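Why does residue order matter? Because the sequence determines the fold. Keep that principle in mind as you read this record.
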Amino acid sequence: MSMEDVIGDIGDTPEELVASAESAAAVREALSAIPTPWRMAFRLRNSEGLDDLEIAQAIEVAKDEVPRILERTADVLRAHLDERGLLRRADSGDGA
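Structure:
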C-alpha cells in the first residue's frame, strides 16, 4: 500500500498542489493518532520499502499480521482524508 494508493497522484496545477499539501498535512495528523507500531509499519513500507518479514521483525509482530496492520492503517488514513473532503475518488467509469 503506497501513499498514492491512499491520497492519489499529485497534480500539476496550483490547485492540485495545494490539495496535495493539505492531504499531506492530514496524513501526518492521522498518522500521529494511530498506534506507534502501525505508524512504523506504514512508514517502513512506504519510506523504506521493507517487505512483510522485515516490518514484522522491526515492530515485533507475526509476519501474518503485517498486511492487516497496513490495510487498517490505510483505512484510518482514508477515513481521515474523507472527513476533510481530501480523498480523491476513482472515476466510476460509467461515462456519466
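DSSP finds five helices and no strands in the chain.
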